[in-house]
Specification:
Blueprint lengths: L7 E3 L3 E5 L2 E4 L7 E2 L11 E3 L2 E5 L2 E2 L1 E6 L13 E6 L13 H4 L8 E2 L2 H10 L4 E4 L8 H13 L3 E6 L5 H7 L5 E4 L6 H5 L1
Parallel strand pairs: 9-11, 11-12, 12-13
Antiparallel strand pairs: 1-6, 2-3, 3-4, 5-6, 7-10, 8-9
Length: 194
């Protein structure tokens, strides 16, 4: 499935019906998105006058040791089922996952509703699920659903993020995440202003 044919759902992290478009409140950019356009992340879109986000899609999945995320003092020695979607709210020239973060429009996507992700994690004998590879903030509605399904089956969840979430996004996802890994991209305030 290519990005041009993917399913979308209503975004919960949105302020709608503004005169100049809908406002995305998933991250600190707080993009105002006009009809037919997307935000900085490239995946949160205004379609039919409503802000939409990806629904039940992943770009990548694999089994990892938790230490590969990298986190060393949370569930040490456990296995984690790592998944990612596409898109990012940063444009880092040095991105190691550029193909799913920035140049993702031709990247193959796989349909993966939350229950399916949890089943795959259990089948691979993972003790948790990590949201990684691209910036999870751009797909928090999906990851919240996966986290809730994971918790029902006794799996932990880890969010690997650049930390540029909005306060609203943190309040939305925080009750459903067991550990955060925040990657500092650069020690330069100007970098974060861009």
């Amino acid at each position: 499935m290519s990005f041009d044919t993917v399913p979308f759902q209503d975004a919960k992290l949105a302020r709608c019906d503004l005169a100049d478009g809908d406002r995305c409140i998933a991250c600190q950019h707080r993009c105002t998105i006009k009809e037919g356009r997307s935000g900085i992340c490239g995946v949160r879109k205004n379609l039919g006058g409503h802000l939409k986000c990806l629904k039940n899609l992943i770009s990548y999945a694999r089994l990892d040791p938790i230490e590969r995320k990298p986190i060393f003092h949370f569930m040490p020695g456990s296995k984690v089922y790592s998944i990612g979607t596409v898109g990012c709210n940063f444009r880092c020239d040095f991105c190691q996952n550029h193909d799913v973060s920035i140049d993702f429009h031709d990247y193959p996507m796989t349909y993966a509703p939350p229950a399916m992700v949890v089943r795959q994690a259990i089948r691979h004998q993972a003790e948790g699920i990590a949201f990684t590879f691209n910036e999870p903030t751009v797909s928090l509605e999906y990851y919240r659903d996966v986290s809730m399904a994971a918790r029902r089956k006794g799996l932990y969840t880890v969010l690997v993020t650049n930390g540029y979430l909005s306060k609203e996004a943190i309040d939305y996802i925080n009750p459903h995440i067991d550990a955060y890994i925040i990657g500092v991209k650069m020690f330069d305030e100007e970098f974060y202003r861009k």
